Amino acid sequence: MKSLKNYLYMLTLILGIATILRTSVQTKAMTLSADSAIVMDVQSGTILYEKNMDKKEYPASITKVMTAMLAIENSSLEEVVTYSSQSLQLESGASNIGIVEGEKLTMEESLYAILLMSANEACNGVAEHIAGSTDKFVEMMNARAKELGCTGTHFANTNGLWLKNHYTTAHDMGLIARAAYNNPTFAKITGTKRYVIGKTNKCKTGHYLHNHHGMLLAGSYPQYVYEYCVGGKTGYTSKCRYTLVTYAKKNGMTLVSVVMRSDAPWMKNNEYSDTTKLLNSCFEKYSRYNIQDDATETVNSQYLFTRFSPFFSKETSSISVDEDAGVLLPKGVTLADTEKKVSFLETADGALVNGKKVIGHISYTYKGQEVGGSDIYYKQSKILQLNDSIDMSGWFTDAVENANKEPFPWKKFFLILILSLVVLVVGFYIVQRLMAEREQRARRKRYKKSKKNTRRMGHHDRW
Asked: Would you give the end-to-end CA distance of the chain in angstroms?
């Protein structure tokens, strides 16, 4: 007995140590130097990971994601930006590409300078060109942040140089970075490794640019190059510490990672190692499902034209969703495990997207969290063409009348049927009871008559 107790004790001790070690390994695997972080799916906006995502932080140069996106949305790439002396006023040590007063660059060249080399003077010059002053452009930045749903952001300059009232959150930066990458121009520029600005009116040699993001282009720390990285933006000041926005694509998924207030690249855990851990973990744990067919089928068969099926089908319907619409689900979970919700605008004033009008939205949820969806679009179908000489008015009227007929009242029918069956069963039971009582009365009469006859016969025998 004593040896059995010792054995059980040792077994419990070993299992406990194994659990502690396993927990320690798991925790170590996801240890981040970043004070706050988030990973989002670019297409759906689904949050796959977060750490202190609503904590206010100083963004440093990842501010330029908003600056570049706003510039793209409010200008053309061919516009010429003329740099003023005021736009070149920067604090000592601020990153720049050496633009001089009066130099002219196109908006496209300026955007490459902003996103690849983090050129602070380019941010100011672009802001002045678009809004007339950096202050007015900053107002536009804050307004755009609110449009995107940011709740913890206040921009005070165009470039992210430290100011006490210039702050954001990992969650808000995720929303901004996601919106930016959905713009093809931004996505192209942020994913460019090298770019050359040719001769300008003030610089005969032009400007040679390379991307500062160490996961996209090998620099001082080539060990951090990440094969799935497709762009991003770095940030650093002594007060902000290291911040990083990173885009990565793998297995049909495009993710954006934001880490804020991380340690330096020469530390064991840093902005690049944090980001690599986060992206690898999310790529490993989640799968992407395209929902175009499922969503289109749902909208057309369950919500629209159900009563007008003679007119429309999945192939001929004027209703559609995004071709690349998808949801991100934990591996092993399928679309059948999600819940779908379709909503339509109350008015026909939806925005136009590529010639199609937005009329609603379909969303997918899993365990109470939205995991993806798509806007629903309307575009006049060109497939249904009728010859003017064919009179379809009679058929159309009949079809509309049939479509508007009240549906067969199945519930009322089954209720009446059940009540009828109950009445029949009760009636049958009553009839059976009456017949049984009648038969009993008849048997009693026969018994009494038989007993009377027996007494009479016995009387005659005595005589």
From this structure: 101
